Amino acid sequence: MNLAATSLPAVSLSAMLRVSRLDLTLLWRNKSSLVTVFGLPVVFAGMLVPMKGVDMGGVDGALLQGTGHLGFFLVFGVLMNLVTVFTARREDLTLKRLRGTALSDAEITGGSVLTATGMYAVQALALLTVLGVALGGRFPADPVLVLAGLAGGVAVFAALAFALSGVSPSAELAQLTVLPIVFGCMLGAGVMFPLDDLPGWLAQISRFTPLSPVVEITRTGYFGQDFHDHSAHPSVGVLAGWRTCLPSFGVLALWAVLGRALAARWFRWEPRHA
């Protein structure tokens, strides 16, 4: 049975929090998941130190890559985490048993998304603190724009997690399922370097990866500079920043629609029967 076949009753926040608490309990018992969710972001944050003071596209290299990591952590905290959770719970019949309780489908899945979002928020706030305190950064020029970009990324990668969990045969192989997206986002989303450094045609294609618009919006909001239309990254005001990010929000919306369609087609509540 897939997501398209589920009903949408009223959702109880308290019920979602109960599911979220279960997720946290299971996470602390799974050492590999802990390393993926918390360890890898620490490693990537440590990689920023040598880039401090290096000019990249007119801005400090540590801050440029750090704002890219704000988006890239979505791959670990949301995508990889949720794919593993949904696949493991499907295969051990936990999802099937939960559907036999008073919980609605939205509450069962929403609780897990809530947990992943909360953990990602902790990672993002910690990285923003590191950028500002240790790496000479600043308070975001437009924090609302930064928040909107990251929230859109959570929605997109959560939808993709629903879909990819449906094609992951086991929890052990779930992380391998997302590896192509990990490498694609790392190399083609402007995380480590500006997309303007790529050949023109490749840069335009890369702007349509699911993470690229998140990075563009986050950097524009953080620096108060245009990171979408101009390689020189001129300063922009609040309204101009939102206006220049409209194409990026459009790409996010397209990925959200595609992710929802794939989730409706691929997500499964129980293992396939032989």
Compose a concise summary of this entry.
The protein has helices at residues 13-29, 31-46, 61-91, 94-98, 105-133, 143-167, 171-188, 200-206, 212-223, 238-244, 246-266; strands at 55-56, 59-60. It has 274 residues and is mainly α. GO terms for molecular function: ABC-type transporter activity.
Overall description:
This protein is mainly alpha-helical. It has one domain. Helices cover 69% and strands 1% of the residues. The protein is built from eleven helices and two strands. The chain is globular and about 55 Å long. One of its GO terms (cellular component) is ATP-binding cassette (ABC) transporter complex.
Supply the key terms.
single chain, 274 residues, mainly alpha, two-stranded antiparallel ribbon, 69% helix, globular, transmembrane helix, ABC-2_transporter, ABC2_TM, antibiotic resistance, membrane
CA gyration radius, whole angstroms? 19 Å
Strand content bin:
under 5%
Mean pLDDT: 86
Helical percent range?
55-70%
**SSE string, helices as H and strands as E:** HHEEHHHHHHHHH
Give, in spatial order, the strands making up the sheet with the most strands: 1-2
Distance between the termini: 15 Å
Low-confidence stretches: 4-8
Computed structural class? mainly alpha
**Total domains:** 1
Q: Biggest sheet, open or closed, and with what strands and sense?
A: 2 strands, antiparallel
Q: What's the total number of strands? A: 2
| Tally of separate helices | 11
List the helices and strands and how they pair.
Blueprint: H1 13-29, H2 31-46, E1 55-56, E2 59-60, H3 61-91, H4 94-98, H5 105-133, H6 143-167, H7 171-188, H8 200-206, H9 212-223, H10 238-244, H11 246-266
Antiparallel strand pairs: 1-2
